[in-house]
């Protein structure tokens, strides 16, 4: 999974226990982890959720957390495994079309012959539109699946979501395998499988379940460990893919990615349902129609949009809407870019990706804790020392400056070694998402944070609708201009990082009882927010 799997470690305990789409008269939620008297309608989804169809489940919180470590690792590894082989498979398909080879698709064309600008432009747009459609469809159905998760349960929604992701990859494999009969553009149809949820719903369900079973004092640490697990999955997979692809070709790797999705789905069936029934549920309340709940949820979401009226929250949402270019340019797009610019075989690009992953882990585990400790110590010189309440905001500005500098180096680097240096510099800003979410959460009361994170998730994933086509367009333009202009996509990323840095300069941290700073939003539903 991409970095968008990373950085959600600021989710708050209280609000995550409360469904986003709940009735206003919701009673107090019980403290027990499980449903003692779950009496929802007898459906396949609820049967899966409750384990009544014979699927064994675990009920120990530590065992549940361990299972999710495995699920996150398998899913992120699967997503990373497919990047290099999928790029090579469809590059070869487009290459056959370009040269009109009569030898058939089973005989691959020399990879160096496929680096023609026309082929690379078509490939960039082909893969970019897949990502764009995936994000668009996922955002379109995110609200619906949020309502379903609050009504039926987290587990059945998570199962359906993983089935959709597995089917999406399966369709891409079918189109690639039968390329002599199917147009490569048909891979865009794979996005329809994201009607089952996609990445936003997948992550939302995971963090909702974890919030149900993890004590508040241990939640942030567990979320950070999940983040690291995702990074490790993304770190190992590209290097293994590079090592294997040289000898096995791309298809065994695609099959391995598919198997990893199946493993993730199988592991989810072992997870128990953790949605708490409302104490006030009776025959009348259970008879409320799904449509009525959906309408009520929409009205509640509309009221929640008043959060955006806080100036700093609005600025932070603008930052989130620009955050995906810095993420996506280090994933599948970088595979194609490296191969074209530095005349590398696609099978070798995974090693470069792994260098970025190693640098990312070092930043998260070593650099950030060390810097945080130094800048907040009372013994630190005053010109370096930062107050605890402003620490996250200052660090975020440093992160954006690092991302801007790193992506600028990537755009102008004449050699692979300098490109790697740029990646290492850029990795310093790779953790900015967690800190910016922490800042956003500090501007609202605890009872509104779940809604805030929902809005953030929609804005973040929605930004990928334009990110990948924009990178593909800049890549095509750079190749057309020739020379060093081929680095134009990374110059564009550097520009978005500069804009995020400038926006962050106008963000303020809330004061406990401040006059100059913004105060946290604490208001009853329907009242006006205040700065």
Summarize the structure.
This protein has helices at residues 13-16, 44-50, 61-99, 117-151, 154-177, 198-213, 216-248, 251-268, 283-286, 290-304, 311-320, 324-328, 332-341, 349-376, 391-412, 416-427, 432-441, 449-481, 488-504. With 531 residues, it is mainly α.
What layout of secondary structure does this protein have?
Elements: H1 13-16, H2 44-50, H3 61-99, H4 117-151, H5 154-177, H6 198-213, H7 216-248, H8 251-268, H9 283-286, H10 290-304, H11 311-320, H12 324-328, H13 332-341, H14 349-376, H15 391-412, H16 416-427, H17 432-441, H18 449-481, H19 488-504
Helix pairs in contact: 2-5, 3-4, 3-7, 3-8, 4-5, 4-6, 4-18, 5-6, 5-8, 7-14, 11-17, 11-19, 14-16, 15-16, 15-17, 15-19, 18-19
Major sheet: size, sense and barrel closure? none
The Rg value, from CA coordinates, equals: 24 Å
Helix/strand order: HHHHHHHHHHHHHHHHHHH
- Write down the CATH topology: Growth Hormone, Chain: A
Domains (count): 1
In total, the number of strands is 0
The coarse overall form would be: globular
Approximately what portion of the residues adopt beta-strand conformation?
under 5%
Number of DSSP helical runs = 19
Distance between the termini: 37 Å
Whole-number average pLDDT?
78
The level 1 CATH classification is: Mainly Alpha
What is the CATH architecture descriptor?
Up-down Bundle
- Structural class, from helix and strand content? mainly alpha
Q: What are the low-pLDDT stretches, counting only 5+ consecutive residues below 50?
A: 1-55, 278-287, 513-517, 519-531
């Amino acid at each position: 999974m991409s970095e968008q799997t990373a950085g959600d470690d600021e989710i708050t305990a209280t609000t995550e226990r409360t469904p986003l789409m709940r009735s206003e008269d919701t009673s107090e939620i019980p403290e027990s982890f499980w449903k003692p008297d779950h009496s929802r309608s007898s459906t396949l989804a609820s049967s899966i959720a409750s384990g009544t169809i014979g699927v064994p489940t675990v009920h120990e919180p530590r065992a549940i957390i361990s299972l999710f470590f495995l699920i996150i690792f398998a899913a992120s590894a699967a997503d990373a495994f497919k990047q290099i082989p999928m790029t090579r498979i469809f590059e070869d398909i487009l290459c056959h079309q370009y040269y009109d080879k009569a030898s058939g698709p089973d005989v691959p064309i020399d990879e160096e012959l496929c680096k023609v600008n026309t082929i690379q432009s078509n490939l960039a747009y082909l893969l970019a539109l897949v990502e764009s459609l995936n994000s668009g469809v996922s955002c379109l159905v995110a609200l619906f699946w949020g309502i379903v998760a609050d009504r039926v349960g987290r587990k059945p929604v998570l199962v359906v979501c993983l089935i959709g992701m597995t089917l999406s990859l399966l369709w891409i494999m079918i189109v690639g395998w039968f390329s002599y009969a199917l147009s490569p553009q048909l891979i865009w149809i794979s996005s329809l499988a994201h009607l089952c949820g996609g990445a936003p719903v997948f992550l939302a369900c995971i963090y909702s379940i974890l919030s149900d079973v993890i004590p508040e004092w241990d939640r942030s640490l567990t979320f950070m460990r999940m983040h690291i697990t995702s990074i490790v999955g993304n770190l190992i997979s590209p290097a293994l893919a590079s090592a294997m692809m040289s000898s096995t070709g791309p298809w065994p790797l695609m099959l391995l990615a598919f198997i990893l999705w199946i493993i993730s789905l199988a592991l989810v069936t072992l997870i128990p349902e953790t949605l708490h029934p409302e104490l006030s549920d009776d025959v009348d309340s259970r008879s409320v129609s799904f449509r009525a709940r959906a309408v009520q949820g929409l009205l509640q979401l509309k009221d929640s949009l008043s959060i955006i009226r806080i100036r700093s929250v609005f600025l932070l949402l603008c930052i989130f809407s620009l955050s995906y270019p810095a993420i996506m340019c280090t994933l599948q797009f970088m595979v194609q870019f490296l191969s074209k610019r530095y005349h590398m075989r696609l099978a070798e690009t995974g090693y470069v990706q792994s260098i970025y992953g190693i640098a990312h882990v070092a930043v998260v585990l070593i650099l950030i804790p060390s810097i945080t400790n130094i800048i907040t110590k009372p013994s630190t010189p005053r010109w370096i020392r930062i107050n605890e309440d402003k620490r996250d905001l200052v660090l975020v500005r440093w992160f954006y400056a690092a991302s801007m500098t790193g992506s600028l180096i990537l755009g102008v680097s004449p050699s692979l070694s300098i490109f790697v240096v740029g990646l290492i510099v850029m990795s310093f800003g790779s953790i900015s998402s967690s800190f910016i979410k922490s800042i956003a959460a500090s501007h609202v009361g605890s009872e509104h944070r779940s809604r805030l994170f929902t809005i953030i998730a929609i804005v973040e994933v929605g930004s990928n609708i334009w990110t990948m086509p924009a990178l593909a367009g800049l890549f095509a333009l750079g190749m057309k201009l020739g020379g060093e202009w081929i680095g134009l996509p990374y110059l564009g990323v550097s520009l978005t990082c500069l804009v995020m840095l400038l926006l962050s300069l106008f963000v303020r941290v809330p004061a406990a009882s401040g006059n100059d700073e913004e105060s946290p939003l604490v208001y009853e539903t329907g009242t006006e927010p205040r700065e």
